[in-house]
Specification:
Blueprint: E1 2-9, E2 14-21, H1 27-34, H2 36-39, E3 50-52, E4 55-57, E5 70-73, H3 81-99
Parallel strand pairs: 1-5
Antiparallel strand pairs: 1-2, 3-4, 3-5
InterPro entries: Mopterin_synth/thiamin_S_b, RnfH, RnfH_sf
Pfam families: Ub-RnfH
Family: Belongs to the UPF0125 (RnfH) family.
Length: 100
């Protein structure tokens, strides 16, 4: 058995659950065993992006959790960060042009 944490931060609340799972449990299975999905019915467990300590993982059905891992359930981004930065830079450039 290994002890891990499963976390999810929704817009209105955050949940951190400590759970003990069998050795060799996949990341996605650990999320199911944690009970977090029952608290957030809007999460699609088959497709939701997952990560460990801030690093997204692509093989959540294969990769086994290790003792002490913090498994994170990510929510979809509301806006693309690159696009937001591009728009902010364009707005700043326009403001500079108008001030000269």
């Amino acid at each position: 058995m290994v002890e891990i944490e499963v976390v999810h931060a929704a817009v209105d609340r955050q949940v951190l659950v400590a759970v003990t799972v069998p050795l060799g449990t996949s990341v996605r299975r650990a999320v199911h065993l944690s009970g977090v999905l029952e608290q957030f019915p809007g999460i699609d467990p088959a497709t939701c992006p997952l990560g460990i300590f801030g690093r997204a993982i692509s093989d959540a059905d294969v990769r086994a959790v290790q003792a002490g891992d913090r498994v994170e359930i990510y929510r979809p981004l509301l806006a693309d960060p690159k696009e937001v930065r591009r728009l902010r830079a364009a707005k700043a450039a326009l403001a500079r042009q108008q001030n000269t």
